[in-house]
Amino acid sequence: MQKTPKGFRLHIGLFGRRNVGKSSVLNAMTRQSVSIVSHVAGTTTDPVEKPMELLPIGPVLFIDTAGIDDTGALGELRVAKTRLIFDRTDVGVIVVDAGQWGEFEQKILHELEKRKIPAIVIFNKSDIAEPDQALVKRLTDEKVLPVHTVATEGKGILDLREALIKATPDEFINTPSIVGDLVPKGELIVLVVPIDLEAPKGRIILPQVQTIRDILDAEQYCIVVKDNRLSEALDRLNRPPSLVVTDSQAFDKVAAATPEDVPLTSFSILFARFKGDLDEFVRGTLAIEDLKPGDHILVAESCSHHPIEDDIGRVKIPKWLKQYVGGDLRFSHVQGHDFPDDPSDYRMVIHCGGCMWNRREMLSRIMRCQNAGVPISNYGLTIAYSLGSFERILKPFPSALEIYRRKHK
Asked: Are 300 and 362 found together in one domain?
């Protein structure tokens, strides 16, 4: 369970002022000294992550943040890092000291509610003081779950566990499928996995592993082939597969080898749906039609790695887009959790599949782009559009295909 990728964990963010007991709550929940506990305000400087299993929810990731009321130049940097945690929080926990509720707590609650993130309020140190009952009633009426704890003594922690179970979004309990819902049970899916410079030595990448597991969970079966063996593999079958899934960079080669009546898509497009909002990504991709030479494009990668000679985000996608536009374009790149608060300086954002992330963070970035009026696409959709394979790879997804066809009537 400790090896479960972060992207499959429920992200639980702990927010509050300095020295209210966030770290004590985390230590009590995990039954470990994960975060340093001190009477000195501001002991937690950077977000502290702790993965664990919380039954019956399953794998979760607790994130203990620095106090949201930190001051000074260094304090502002800590607060900025804490605010980034909102982007990937599935359940927000506000820790309050001895029943005190003020402007800081209300702002945190407002931010969670604005993002439609379920919230829990922990009234810690309840042996010292209890909160105002009118406040408790107001929070309850707003569907916010109140919990009373004395974290240093472990009191109220079982109540907190129950509150977390109640607050967990349904979509986390009933995890959406990557590919298993696209074809009937018992059918064959062919996965095309090129072995190139970006393939890790001795293993295959996470989206491919997760897709295979999803197929097994859906009572289907698959064969995995390299792109140069696809034609041979299809010839050996006594009937066509229900779906072919390829790496986006091999679209042209795989499309040429796959019969027109066999549905075809890519791992990146599957993850556009699984981790984000496929329909919104399709709308964003259509903005490629309006690109002009000189436009500024942001390319965002969720994981940090050293770019290779033929890197997809830094070399291939820029090359294909420049060819499509017929002129030069400006590209900027961000990695990891770095992302502009206001992306309006860019004509378009192109994002990787986000396989290492939870869905909440990807949806937060989509929302940020929507608020700025900036179209957002992802790697696979951008590649397919640039290479002229867009309609074919969307056929397994009727609503997304309809968005494209309405634009091209």
From this structure: yes
Q: Is residue 182 part of a domain?
A: no
Mean pLDDT confidence for 287-297: 96
Phi-psi region of 42 (alpha: psi -120 to 50; beta: other; left: phi over 0): left
- What count of Cα atoms within 13 Å lies in the side-chain half-sphere of residue 235? 5
**How far, rounded to the nearest angstrom, does the alpha carbon of residue 202 sit from its chain's CA centroid?**
26
Domain count, the chain: 3
**359 domain residue, yes or no:** yes
| Angle at which helices 379-387 and 278-285 cross, to 10° | 40
Residue 81: Cβ within 10 Å count: 15
Tell me, yes or no, whether 221 lies in a domain.
yes
Contacts of 244 (CB under 8 A, 6+ apart): 189, 190, 192, 230, 254, 258, 262, 263, 264, 265
Handedness of CA 69, 74, 80, 81 (dihedral sign): negative
With residue 165 as reference, give the H or E element that holds it: helix 157-167
pLDDT digits (tens, 9 = 90+) for 77-116: 556 777 788 888 999 999 998 778 988 899 999 999 998 9
Q: Do residue 261 and residue 230 come from a single domain?
A: yes
C-alpha to C-alpha distances, 397 to 183, 224, 263, 273, 361, nearest whole angstrom: 11, 22, 10, 9, 23
Q: Are residues 60 and 40 in the same domain?
A: yes
Is the residue at 184 inside a domain? no
Tell me which residue range forms the domain holding 88.
6-173
pLDDT band at 19 (very low <50, low <70, confident <90, very high): confident
Structure tokens at 258: 């796959």
pLDDT confidence bin for 353, thresholds 50/70/90: confident
Last-in-domain residue among 242, 269, 296: 269
